[in-house]
Amino acid sequence: MSPCLWEAKDNTSPEWVPLAHRRGLPANPGELTAQEAREASTTTSVWGFTFLSYEEMASLDWQAYPDVVLDGSTYGWGLLWSLLKTLDEAGKYQRLVVWFDWS
Predict the structure, then answer these.
(1) pLDDT beneath 70, residues of the chain
(2) Residue whose C-alpha is closest to residue 38's, from 92, 84, 99
(3) Which end of the chain has a smaller Cβ tally under 10 Å, C or N?
(4) pLDDT of amino acid 76
(5) In angstroms, rounded to a whole number, what is the distance separating the alpha carbons of residues 4 and 66?
(6) What is the pLDDT of residue 31?
(7) What are phi and psi of 4, to 5 degrees?
(8) What is the pLDDT of residue 28?
(9) How many Å separate Cα 99 from the centre of its chain?
(10) What CA–CA distance (Å, rounded) separates 34 from 23?
């Protein structure tokens, strides 16, 4: 699931741009997220801060990515996907804030 959502470090495919391509941190990250991001940014191997909402993930044309398993099992994201869907159904707004560490 992750290569179609955010940039993979080794993505050289010019055919598509990931949904949450190089957005940086959101303007209003949560306190813990902001603290973790500050600490992570002191590490030289950290790169690719970005974020996306569950609504964006749910509206993605998943048929365009035939190698992606929708339940998230391809990359082990199944539990997170289920949690986001449950929160969405309960009317709770959520987003994922991610960054990568390739050390």
Answers:
(1) 1-3, 6-17, 44, 65-77, 102-103
(2) 99
(3) C
(4) 61
(5) 11
(6) 95
(7) -80, -15
(8) 93
(9) 8
(10) 15
